[in-house]
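Please decode residue identities from the backbone states below.
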């Protein structure tokens, strides 16, 4: 007999990070998933969920506000990284004047020529740097793209 069951997870509405508590990333009910995320500094705002990187807390009022959405060109780059480049899930972080998107690649030390070309075409003047670095200890490499805000 085969049965199937539904599990629930929480994903950040802004950066796409999925909540995990170190052991689990799925729960058997919605409340369990959300409650666990909230205990780890995630917030819920108007039915959306944000990880600790994606909102700011007002120092005086302690009110939480989601950071503004990523610019369109950054969202497109993230999509490309996730769907077209083979490797682990991509990460996105932001500094005052740029966004950094990176991803660990499987068994390769460089991006294909067409991937690099596509990223350059897509970002145009917004591109700051494309770089692939080999990990010192592992056989994988990390691809990083810096993009203007
Ligand atoms: Zn986030």
């Amino acid at each position: 007999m085969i049965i199937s069951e539904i599990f629930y997870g929480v994903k950040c509405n802004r950066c796409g990070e999925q909540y995990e508590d170190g052991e689990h990333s799925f729960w058997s009910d919605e409340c369990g998933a959300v409650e666990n995320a909230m205990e780890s500094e995630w917030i819920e705002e108007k039915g959306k969920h944000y990880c600790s990187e994606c909102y700011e807390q007002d120092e005086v009022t302690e009110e939480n506000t989601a950071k503004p959405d990523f610019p369109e060109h950054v969202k497109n780059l993230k999509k490309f990284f996730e769907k077209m480049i083979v490797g682990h899930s991509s990460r996105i972080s932001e500094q005052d004047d740029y966004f950094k998107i990176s991803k660990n690649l499987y068994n390769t030390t460089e991006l294909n020529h067409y991937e690099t070309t596509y990223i350059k075409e897509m970002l145009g003047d917004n591109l700051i740097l494309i770089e692939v670095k080999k990990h010192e200890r592992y056989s994988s490499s990390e691809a990083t793209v810096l993009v203007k805000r």
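Observation: The longest strand covers residues 98-105.
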